[in-house]
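For consistency, the fold was encoded as tokens, as this record shows:
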Amino acid sequence: MLRQINATGSVRMPDVAPRYRFLLVRANTSHPDHWLVNRLISQMQPFDFVSRFLFDKDGFYESYEKMPDKFQEEVVKTLQDTYLSDKVGFRRRLYGITED
């Protein structure tokens, strides 16, 4: 699948295991409730802590408090290296969101 992504920039949804498909689904940014839809999607995938951090802060922090210390360190590092280093660009690239 990685080869296909690198070659075409796309993924065939049938090639993705059903339990991981919500990791690829995003709300339609032209819909007025796209933030809410993304929040609901992130709540269905609690292990996607980046999406939880963006769209469901309360749920993120509730989960974060229960994580082992080492994993918390990894979560913080990942958020710093991805989302927090370029919030606007990250939201645009991964979620298609163009407003601040």
In short: Residues 49 and 95 are 15 Å apart (CA to CA).
